[in-house]
Amino acid sequence: MTIEARLHRDAGALTTLSNGRHVWSADVSRELGSSDRAPDPHDLLDSALAACTTLTLELYIRRRQLAVTSLRVTVERTEGKAADGRTLYTLQRQVFIDGALTDDERNKLLEIAGKCPIHRLLEGEIHVHTQLG
C-alpha cells in the first residue's frame, strides 16, 4: 500500500493524502503558518490507534455476538523529553463499553484492545527509509 501526500502551498500547508481508494487531509495550526483546516499529523497517528482499537473490538464483538450497545475509544497524547534527550510520546487510551457484559467479557475486550494491529505496530520497532525521487 502506498500513501501519497500532496502539498497545496496556496492553502498554507494543507496536504491531501490518498491511498488510491480514499482521500483525506492533513494540515498544521495557524501558529505554524497554515489555515488549520484538517488534523495535524500527530492527530492522524493518534486517530489511527483509536480507529484500529474500535474496529478490532467491533470485529470481536460481532464474532462473539456480545451484548454491546455502544463502544467508544479515546486517545490522549502527552509529549516530553527523556533524560537522554529523546522525545517521549505517550498515548493514554480509554475504552468505554456499554452493554450487558460479564466481568470476564469486559476483561477479554481489554485484552483484545491490546491486540489491535496499530497498537502492536506502535509498541514494536519501526524503520523509516527515505530517498529522493
UniProtKB/TrEMBL annotation:
InterPro entries referenced in this protein's UniProt entry, alphabetically: KH_dom-like_a/b (IPR015946), OsmC/Ohr_fam (IPR003718), OsmC/Ohrsf (IPR036102)
On the tree of life, the source organism's domain of life is Bacteria
Q: Which Pfam families match?
A: OsmC
* Protein's name according to its UniProt entry: OsmC family protein
